[in-house]
Write a structure and sequence with these properties.
single chain; 244 residues; Jelly Rolls; two-stranded antiparallel ribbon; globular
């Protein structure tokens, strides 16, 4: 018994998380990354417990553009349409990097963000979305640690939200344009708060449904892949394979 106890406490933390990941649902679709789902009552549409925080960090990848090529790809972290992230794509053959936000599921950009709040390849960024259901407010905080700027926007949101996500969007099936070629997108610090529990994304399995969008596909073609969750902060990466 003593030997078993010592083995358990000395085991690498990644192996502990690997046990709980058996209940994660793998899906091939037109996005990459992860999503956590909280069930709601069919009668009241009130999710109990509720998602009150989603956060994550990532390093903005470098994109490669072909002459004249126009693509679109972005990475977002948030709660069901209240989110912050970064765009990295090609416009007429030139690489473009910029902050991105959605509020109330509308892609209106980061309202009121300072003109000097720029994004570049290699920047480390963090997005935190909080939901206050009693006050009917939401807050998105987007931070570029490399450039030392922070953007915060608080707004009214009366919706009942049941999904948190850490996702990459792009490619023919999502935007109608090729998936931007990018270097490995590395993420870390992927946490959530659901009810009274705060923890890493992996720690919510098997209590809640976690969707692993392990392949971003266009028909039979695999354009990008998402790695399994790893370590105490549920780090993962997204790898580009092809444009279309």
């Amino acid at each position: 018994m003593l030997f078993l106890f010592l083995f358990l406490i000395s085991a690498p933390i990644t192996s502990v998380f690997a046990i709980s990941l058996s209940s994660i649902t793998k899906t091939a679709t037109d996005i990459a990354g992860y999503e956590i789902q909280v069930p709601s009552s069919a009668d009241t549409l009130v999710a109990l417990p509720r998602i009150t925080l989603v956060q994550g960090s990532w390093v903005v990848p470098t994109v490669s553009c072909v002459n004249g090529e126009t693509t679109f790809t972005r990475y977002l972290v948030g709660v069901q349409g209240d989110d912050g992230g970064a765009d990295f794509y090609c416009s007429s053959g030139s690489a473009v990097y910029s902050p991105d936000c959605e509020f109330l599921s509308f892609d209106t950009g980061c309202t009121g963000i300072a003109s000097g709040d720029k994004v570049s390849a290699g920047d480390k960024m963090t997005s935190v979305t909080t939901e206050n259901y009693k006050a009917h407010t939401a807050k998105v905080t987007l931070k570029d640690t490399t450039k030392s700027w922070t953007y915060t926007h608080t707004f009214t949101d009366v919706r009942t939200l049941t999904e948190g996500f850490w996702i990459l969007e792009g490619g023919p099936g999502y935007t109608g344009t090729p998936l931007t070629e990018f270097t490995l997108l590395k993420t870390s610090g992927n946490f959530a708060t659901i009810g009274s529990k705060h923890g890493s994304l992996a720690s919510f399995s098997p209590s809640y449904t976690i969707q692993w969008f392990y392949e971003l596909v266009n028909g039979a073609d695999i354009l990008a892949t998402t790695s399994p969750l790893s370590g105490a902060t549920s780090a993962f990466s997204i790898k580009w394979l092809k444009a279309s």
